[in-house]
Amino acid sequence: MEDSWTRFKADDVFNGMIELCIWYPTAWGQWLSQANHIFRRLRITSNLEEYVVVRHIIFKLEVPGTTELHPAGFLFLCPPQNFKSGPFSSRWPDCPAYWSLDPSSSDWLTLEEATWLGFPAFQCTTELWGKSWEASVYEGLRKFHLAKGFDPDTQDVARHLGHPLFHLSSEDDLSFSHSESVIPKAAFHD
Predict the structure, then answer these.
(1) pLDDT one digit per residue (tens) for the chain, 190 residues
(2) Which parts of the chain fold into alpha helices (H)?
(3) What is the pairing mode between strands 53-63 and 74-77?
(4) Cα distances (angstroms) measured from residue 44 to each of 89, 103, 174
(5) How far apart (Å, rounded) are the C-alpha atoms in residues 73 and 102?
(6) How far apart are CA 97 and CA 88, in angstroms?
(7) What is this structure's pTM?
(8) Tell me, what DSSP letter sits at residue 126?
């Protein structure tokens, strides 16, 4: 539509799933060339294998079928850009989708109205796909970088290889507590 929302006829989405995949272009070598630096900056010294470099995120909106008769209506989905909260961060928008009886989308139904009219509630889930490495890999990289004359606690290897440099999301907050929202029912994949 003109406002970048997508309209579906209700009958076309019942018993269906709509997915949005957001890819992050990080090459594994870029991460591995500076991982020890990032871990040092964040004061992370153990359980390194529990940290994942996100490759892509899949936002899923499931619309269950309905056994009841339902009105002829429409499901409106927000534009994909509404899921981006920064250049390298994503989250569910406040309103990812809504039901309407009006094909122009000017009259949103509240959850109560939609339920009363027989529209099913949709369910939002999130999948994160990424890669992690054993702690021994990071220790091996540390030794290899030292043997090649680089300080593994800096980004010198990444600079030498011409990789883009990773920056902390906040130089003041050295934790991973910068999450912008709770991800509903997240599933992590390696």
Answers:
(1) 888 999 999 989 999 999 999 988 777 899 999 999 999 999 999 999 999 988 999 999 999 987 667 778 999 999 999 999 887 789 999 999 999 999 987 789 999 999 898 899 989 999 999 999 999 999 999 999 999 999 999 999 999 999 989 888 765 444 443 333 333 333 334 3
(2) 10-13, 28-32, 35-41, 111-117, 135-147, 156-161
(3) unpaired
(4) 21, 52, 10
(5) 7
(6) 23
(7) 0.75
(8) E
